[in-house]
Design a protein that fits this description.
This protein has helices spanning about 1-15, 15-20, 25-50, 55-75, 80-95, 95-100, 100-125, 135-150, 150-160, 165-195, 195-205, 215-240, 250-255, 265-285, 285-295, 300-330, 340-370, 375-400, 405-420, 425-440, 445-450, 455-465, 475-480, 490-500. It is built from 24 helices and no strands.
């Protein structure tokens, strides 16, 4: 009787430990543990090691559908909000197939990874809109949930082996392969280095497999870790693991706990900076507004004028953002109890930043009109416009009490990012510069610089039959020896144009 009472008390005191010991996996979970390992390998091959256009598109789109199928089988349904995110994931997956711009594809991959993990979290949480603690949710979706169950994948695989009729044999085979495959690659690499004859034989039988053994081992390890992460993400969200972490109440309490500075202290700290901004802008009014009239100030070249504007913008924007964050999150009377004076400071700083952004953009337009487009000029202009819109949203938020700032900010970013991804940046740079040169607005056309851009730009260079010298020698051979590099629309067009020469 006494022993039974102790057992009952142990179960009550240690429920988590008991759950961990008795955890079992459904047939679906065991199958998906293996599927996630395959997807982990595909991620390494088609995202980390080699972005291959259509294959990378298929990976992201396929992973989205597989995650949706898992969630559906786990009893979750997509509401309107999550359907929109689902469509966005599929839409942005196509970027890899339509552009050859490596920078855009890198940003798109990051966007899809973060959006995808948030989407899985949002479906399981049944979010109907972008909530006010979106950034906390994003951290929870990408870091907390997946790593909370990252050890579940190997356990599910072992559980699958245990339920097999030949479980002992499978375990022994898997253990032997895990031990010997990496060792085999190492030994093969040493033999190749020691004897050219062995190298010839192994190359004839296995191709270049053993020559890249360290690379293969690294890919294998990363593939397994990514597979564990993906399964941990699905398992945690479907089973609501760590559901009590970063809840709305805890996020609210966290924000309240950092409101430690009296408002008077924040006013006195912000006032000198704001007065300096006003004084500086008034004294330099002619300098700042020269860009609007298209007049270049004395002692400045177009390059110096525009670059100096960028430096001012970046420094001021960062300082102003830090000030806004400080006065809105660290002041004791902020948020719902925000004072009129605090709103005034926020408005003043936002207006000043918008003016700086507007003048910097006008100077950039002046600069582009004289020297043409480059990727850096496009990306910085895009960022300035995005920053300007966000500051406008901050202004609206100060005057409209029920304004959903986070929701509109996220929508704004997605729209701007979509413009960046689907606007064919390098192609339009080449198209614009060629047209400006042909119409006489540009004195020189740097064909070499255009050839150094992605295949998006080469489409227009080849169509206009510009003299590319020997800069494109070997380009066609590259497509033939490594066909995967032509698995996007721009590279396919360049290949066809080169074959037609």
């Amino acid at each position: 009787m006494e022993e039974n009472q102790k057992a009952i008390n142990y179960e009550i005191i240690n429920p988590l430990q008991k759950t961990e010991e008795t955890v079992t996996f459904s047939r679906q979970e065991r199958i998906f543990a293996f599927i996630m390992l395959v997807l982990g390998y595909c991620f390494v091959r088609f995202v980390l090691w080699n972005v291959t256009g259509i294959l990378t598109t298929l990976f992201f789109a396929g992973t989205t559908f597989i995650c949706w199928f898992y969630l559906k089988k786990s009893g979750y349904k997509l509401n309107t909000y999550n359907k929109v995110i689902f469509i966005l994931l599929l839409l942005f997956s196509t970027v890899f197939s339509i552009t050859d711009n490596g920078f855009i594809k890198f940003l798109d991959a990051l966007f899809l990874i973060m959006t995808g993990t948030y989407w899985v979290y949002s479906v399981s949480k049944e979010n109907k809109t972008t909530e006010r603690f979106f950034f906390f949710d994003l951290v929870k979706a990408t870091l907390v949930m997946p790593f909370a169950s990252i050890g579940k994948s190997p356990k599910a695989i072992i559980d699958s082996a245990n339920k097999s009729k030949s479980s002992n044999n499978i375990k022994l085979i898997l253990l032997g392969l895990v031990i010997t495959i990496p060792l085999t690659f190492v030994v093969a690499g040493l033999l190749i280095s020691a004897d050219d004859g062995i190298k010839v034989i192994l190359d004839a039988v296995f191709g270049k497999l053993f020559n890249s053994s360290p690379d293969m081992i690294m890919q294998f390890v990363i593939s397994v870790l990514v597979g564990f992460y993906l399964f941990g993400m699905l398992y945690s969200n479907a089973n609501r693991v760590k559901i009590d972490v970063l809840t709305e109440e805890k996020c609210e309490n966290t924000l309240k706990s950092i409101k430690i500075f009296p408002n008077l202290l924040m006013y006195s700290a912000a006032t000198p900076v704001c007065l300096l901004y006003v004084l500086f802008f008034v004294l330099q009014l002619r300098y700042f507004t020269s860009g609007f009239s298209g007049i270049l100030p004395e002692t400045y070249s177009y390059a110096e004028y525009a670059r100096k504007g960028f430096f001012e913008l970046s420094v001021i924007a960062v300082i102003n953002l830090l000030i806004l964050m400080a006065i809105n999150f660290l002041s004791k009377q902020s948020g719902d109890t925000k004072t009129a004076i605090l709103k005034g400071y926020s408005v003043l700083i936002s207006v000043f930043t918008i003016l700086i952004i507007a003048t910097a953009l006008s100077k950039m337009i002046l600069y582009i009109g004289n020297y043409g487009l480059t990727p850096l000029r496009v990306y910085t202009s895009w960022f300035m416009v995005l920053l300007g819109v966000l500051y406008m949203l901050i202004l609206i938020n100060e005057f409209k009490g029920n304004f959903n700032f986070i929701n509109y900010s996220v929508v704004t970013f997605v729209l701007f990012f979509g413009i960046l991804c689907f606007s064919n940046v390098d192609g339009n740079i080449a198209k614009y510069n060629i047209k400006m040169y042909q119409t006489g607005y540009l004195k020189e056309l740097d064909v070499y610089a255009l050839c150094n851009l992605s295949d998006d730009a080469l489409v227009y260079v080849l169509r206009e039959n510009l003299d590319t010298g020997d800069w494109l020698d070997g380009k066609l051979n590259q497509y033939q020896t490594n066909p995967k590099t032509a698995y996007n629309l721009s590279s396919y067009r360049v290949k066809k144009l080169l074959e037609g020469k």
